[in-house]
C-alpha cells in the first residue's frame, strides 16, 4: 500500500516502546519450517513463500479465517521446549532490529502446552509440557535475548474468551512469575463472548486486581463499545487492546479519557481484520491523537500481517498525519502505561526523554 520513495526509510528513527504484540503471532516462518521438519509435523507448505501464502494476510479477512491461521503452524511449535524458548529469543532479536527498547509480548501458555491443559490444543498427542513450564521457557528465551540484544522484554499472560476454565491458572502464573518477567494479564479471543456468561474471567480479574497484577483486555476491536465498558468497569482493565469502538459511545469515551485508560492501537492489524473503516484516513487513531488520549502504536501479529513496527508507523505518518512529535508522544504514553514496576518505568521514561532531546542528560 505504501508505494512512495519513503517506503524503505525508517520513519521515526528513535527508540520505541511496544505494548501489544502476540508471541504466537510473531514467529519467524523459517523457525516454523525448522521445527515442523525436525518434529515430523506436517505443515501446509515446505518453503517460506509457500507457508506465508497460507499464514500471511494480503487483504481483510474475518475472525474465523484469522483464528484458523494459527492451526496451520502452531502444531510445529506447541509442545516443544526448544521451539518455545527459541521463538521468545527470536522475538527479542526481531524487536531490537525495529528500534524497540522495551516490549511486552502476550500469549496463552495453554496454547503452547500439551499437558495439564484441557482440551489439548492443535490436535496434539498428550505430552509433558505444562502451561507453567511454558511460562518458564518464554521467560528464559526473553532473558537470553535481553542479554544479547540489550533491550528489555516482558510478558503478559492471556486468558482466552472461549476458555474461562483456564483463567484461574493464568492469574496464578502471573503471581508465580511476577519477578521473572511476567508483568500482566490479558483477555483475548472472540469479543462476542461476554464475561457475565463466562464468570471464570471475572473471578480471575478480581484476583489479579487484589494481587496487584496489571490488567489489559482486548475490547472494542471488532466488538462494540459495551465490551470496552465491561473491560473497564467489571474487569478493571488499566489498558484496552485496540478499543477503537470506544468512540462510538461518547460518554464512555469521555470517561476513559478522564481515567487516562491506555489504548493499544494497532493500525495495520485493524485494517486487515476489518476492525475499522477501510479508509485509513478515517481511523480512530486520528481522533485519539487530536483528543490527546493515552495510546501507543503496535503491530499485534506481525507474522500474519507480514509487517514490522515500521509499517504501522509509515501508515500513521502517511494516512493519519502523524508527526515526529506525535510518535514521541505515543511512545512516551506507552512507557508511562507499561506494566513495569515504578522504578524500571522511570528509567525507561528517562531514556526516552534523553534520546528524544526532552531533557538534558545528567552529567556528573
Ligand atoms: Zn491482539
Give a written overview of the molecule.
GO terms for molecular function: adenosine deaminase activity; metal ion binding. It is a peripheral membrane protein. Belongs to the metallo-dependent hydrolases superfamily. Adenosine and AMP deaminases family. It is found in: Cell junction; Cell membrane; Cytoplasmic vesicle lumen; Lysosome. Mean pLDDT is 94; it is low at 1-6. The protein starts with 15 loop residues before the first strand and ends in a 9-residue tail after the last helix. The longest helix has 19 residues, at 131-149. Helix 4 runs parallel beside helix 5. Strand 6, helix 9 and strand 7 (262-265) form a beta-alpha-beta unit. It has helices at residues 29-39, 48-55, 63-77, 81-97, 131-149, 167-176, 199-211, 225-233, 250-259, 267-272, 284-290, 309-320, 324-336, 342-355, and strands at 16-18, 100-107, 152-160, 182-188, 214-219, 239-242, 262-265, 294-297. With 364 residues, it is an alpha/beta fold. The chain is 45% helix and 12% strand. It has 14 helices and 8 strands. The chain has an 8-stranded parallel β-sheet. It has a single domain (16-356), classed as TIM Barrel. The chain is globular, with a radius of gyration of 19 Å. Residues 20, 22, 218, 241, 300 line the site of zinc ion.
Q: Order of strands across the biggest sheet?
A: 1-2-3-4-5-6-7-8
Secondary-structure element pattern, one letter each: EHHHHEHEHEHEHEHEHHEHHH
Number of strands: 8
Q: What Rg do the Cα atoms give?
A: 19 Å
Number of helices: 14
- Kindly report the name of the CATH homologous superfamily: Metal-dependent hydrolases
Family: Belongs to the metallo-dependent hydrolases superfamily. Adenosine and AMP deaminases family.
EC number: 3.5.4.4
Domain Adenosine deaminase: 15-353
Protein name: Adenosine deaminase
Amino acid at each position: 500500500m505504501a508505494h512512495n520513495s519513503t517506503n524503505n526509510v525508517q520513519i521515526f528513527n528513535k527508540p520505541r516502546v511496544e505494548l501489544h504484540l502476540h508471541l504466537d503471532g510473531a514467529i519467524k516462518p523459517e523457525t516454523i519450517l525448522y521445527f515442523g521438519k525436525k518434529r515430523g509435523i506436517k505443515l501446509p507448505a515446505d518453503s517460506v513463500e509457500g507457508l506465508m501464502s497460507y499464514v500471511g494476510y494480503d487483504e481483510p479477512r474475518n475472525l474465523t479465517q484469522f483464528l484458523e491461521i494459527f492451526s496451520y503452524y502452531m502444531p510445529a511449535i506447541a509442545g516443544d521446549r526448544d521451539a518455545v524458548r527459541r521463538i521468545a529469543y527470536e522475538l527479542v532479536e526481531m524487536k531490537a532490529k525495529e528500534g524497540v527498547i522495551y516490549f511486552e509480548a502476550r500469549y496463552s501458555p495453554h496454547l503452547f502446552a500439551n499437558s495439564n491443559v484441557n482440551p489439548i490444543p492443535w490436535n496434539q498427542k498428550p505430552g509433558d509440557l505444562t502451561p507453567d513450564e511454558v511460562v518458564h521457557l518464554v521467560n528464559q528465551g526473553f532473558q537470553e535475548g535481553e542479554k544479547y540484544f540489550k533491550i528489555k522484554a516482558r510478558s503478559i499472560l492471556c486468558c482466552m474468551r472461549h476458555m474461562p476454565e483456564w483463567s484461574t491458572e493464568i492469574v496464578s502464573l502471573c503471581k508465580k512469575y511476577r519477578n521473572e518477567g511476567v508483568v500482566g494479564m490479558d483477555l483475548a479471543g472472540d469479543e462476542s463472548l461476554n464475561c457475565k456468561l463466562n464468570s471464570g474471567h471475572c473471578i480471575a480479574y478480581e484476583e489479579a486486581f487484589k494481587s496487584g497484577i496489571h490488567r489489559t483486555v482486548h475490547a472494542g476491536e471488532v466488538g462494540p463499545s459495551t465490551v470496552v465498558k465491561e473491560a473497564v468497569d467489571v474487569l478493571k482493565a488499566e489498558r484496552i487492546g485496540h478499543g477503537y469502538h470506544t468512540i462510538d459511545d461518547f460518554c464512555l469515551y469521555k470517561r476513559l479519557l478522564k481515567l487516562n485508560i491506555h489504548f493499544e492501537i494497532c493500525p495495520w492489524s485493524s485494517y486487515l481484520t476489518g476492525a475499522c473503516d477501510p479508509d485509513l484516513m478515517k481511523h480512530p487513531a486520528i481522533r485519539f491523537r487530536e483528543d490527546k488520549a493515552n495510546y501507543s502504536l503496535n503491530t499485534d501479529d506481525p507474522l500474519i500481517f507480514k509487517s514490522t513496527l515500521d509499517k504501522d508507523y509509515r501508515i500513521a505518518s502517511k494516512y493519519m498525519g502523524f508527526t515526529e512529535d506525535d510518535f514521541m508522544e505515543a511512545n512516551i504514553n506507552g512507557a508511562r502505561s507499561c506494566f513495569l514496576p515504578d522504578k524500571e518505568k522511570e528509567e525507561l521514561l528517562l531514556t526516552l526523554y534523553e534520546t528524544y532531546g526532552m531533557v538534558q542528560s545528567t552529567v556528573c
